[in-house]
Amino acid sequence: MCGIVGVMGRAPVNQTIYDSLLLLQHRGQDAAGIATAHEQFFNMFKAKGLVRDVFRTRNMRSLPGNSGVGQVRYPTAGSSDNEDEAQPFYVNAPFGITFVHNGNLTNWRSLREELFRIDRRHINTNSDSEVLLNVFAHELQSAASGANLDDDAVFAAVSVVHRRAKGAYAVIAQIASFGMVAFRDPHGIRPLCLGRQETENGTEWMLASESVALTGCGFSFVRDVDPGEAIIIDLDGQVRSRQCADNPSLTSCLFEYVYFARPDSLMDGVSVYQARLRMGEYLADNVARALRLGDIDVVMPIPDSSRPSAMQLAARLDLNYREGFIKNRYIGRTFIMPGQAVRKKSVRQKLSAIDMEFRGKNVLLIDDSIVRGTTSRQIVDMAREAGANKVFFASAAPPVRFPNVYGIDMPTQAELIATGRSIDQIADEIGADGLVFQHLEDLERSVRDLNPAMTQFEASCFDGKYVTGDIDAQYLAELSRSRGA
Ligand SMILES: O=P(O)(O)OC[C@H]1O[C@H](OP(=O)(O)OP(=O)(O)O)[C@H](O)[C@@H]1O
Ligand SMILES: NC(=O)CC[C@H](N)C(=O)O
Ligand SMILES: [Mg+2]
């Protein structure tokens, strides 16, 4: 997952974009970048690393201008080592465009081939985002007439992007001398929202992956961008929008609610925090059916993401709730780190157990999800080392059994701990005395209870159903080859 942001301001925006990227850091820890527009030039700085490590004062000074875009990256195509794949991306024609993307295209290799063969465009990285930018640029070139760009041409270009690109994309682009354009794929798989702020110089607008970036920077949340919709914010701060997809349908990624998004965000009308509380309630009912509650002395979350669910589960079952694992606040999220070796090492660096909370007790550990089992395997060991008697485990999400191709880096089935294993076998594998998973219907209900309009979800990592159509075997094989290691 990546975090994206765009600001159309009335004063220099570099600091606001920096601050918003800090608020989106949980969505991508590998690289960060900002591109601002000033007079007739774009200024850009991007590099590998966390936001606070990437931008020094001199870099911030090199980013003047009252509008700009920014991104924090968690790669799903290409590699985390290649600084050229950090975003924003830039193309000089037509007009000059800087571009940020969250999501993943499943047909980017054939599009790249087409772009070269038919459109005479060379793509210089293995990033699907660079491909998407060039498709957009090509379509803008075709739709625009003469030197002047108008709304119709921009909306027409987005419509063709929707027809050509397959996969998930939330995009914010700046077009020189025109303004900002943002759009979401026809299924709205990846999130994107709009906010505004009144200043003494006039209205400022911000677009961001999550509402926490808006509110944390003093903007108020206006609305989510609709699936398939494109929004234009022109240089005068006027906002216009149009539905550009033939058959848009909201099919948000369920994993955002489980893990990715911050709990203090509002996404497609749903508070992520409240959704996680609900997950805890439904999971509690399932735990009550599967385990003997009298056997459980204490419920514990695995920090951070499972906290709301664990708390609510304990309350519903009338069990003690304790924080037995303490998190080192200076270590980032483990799951989105690049490579299994670093992820494995980080769990021990990140979490440590308070022995007195475990000694002689039967503990029920709650996590939001079990994906590769990197966390759960080590955590169960740590609980035992700390003196726990029995260690039960429950996951607020169902078993993850299928690769994700829409912006979450789970490229191969083989790496998923649930692949080819029954629940008992997974329990054995992580060393738990009992293991309970959320049912998919209950997970969906946890979100839908809060917004009945959400009738369907992108839940492919749980059920293997891909909303953009079947994923061809060649793509999956290539994904596994290029990213699996
Ligand atoms: O089964 P795994 O492959 O280990 O993946 C799942 C774990 O990874 C995530 O934690 P992470 O440390 O990334 O972030 P958090 O601090 O937000 O919980 C998630 O919350 C689970 O704990
Ligand atoms: N997680 C994402 O949104 C990734 C964006 C893009 N596919 C990249 O790899 O850089
Ligand atoms: Mg976690």
From TrEMBL:
What are the record keywords, sorted? Answer: Glutamine amidotransferase, Glycosyltransferase, Magnesium, Metal-binding, Purine biosynthesis, Transferase
The active-site annotation reads C2
Glutamine amidotransferase type-2 domain: from which residue to which, for each copy? 2-236
Q: In which pathway does it act?
A: Purine metabolism; IMP biosynthesis via de novo pathway; N(1)-(5-phospho-D-ribosyl)glycinamide from 5-phospho-alpha-D-ribose 1-diphosphate: step 1/2
Instruction: Report the catalytic activity.
Output: 5-phospho-beta-D-ribosylamine + L-glutamate + diphosphate = 5-phospho-alpha-D-ribose 1-diphosphate + L-glutamine + H2O
Tell me how the cofactor is bound.
Binds 1 Mg(2+) ion per subunit.
Q: Which Pfam families match?
A: GATase_6, Pribosyltran
Which amino acid positions bind Mg(2+), per UniProt?
A: S305, D367, D368
Write down the EC number: 2.4.2.14
Q: Which cofactor does it need?
A: Mg(2+)
GO molecular function, a single term: amidophosphoribosyltransferase activity
Write out the similarity annotation. Answer: In the C-terminal section; belongs to the purine/pyrimidine phosphoribosyltransferase family.
Q: Outline what the protein does.
A: Catalyzes the formation of phosphoribosylamine from phosphoribosylpyrophosphate (PRPP) and glutamine.
Descriptive protein name: Amidophosphoribosyltransferase
Question: What's the name of its gene?
Answer: purF
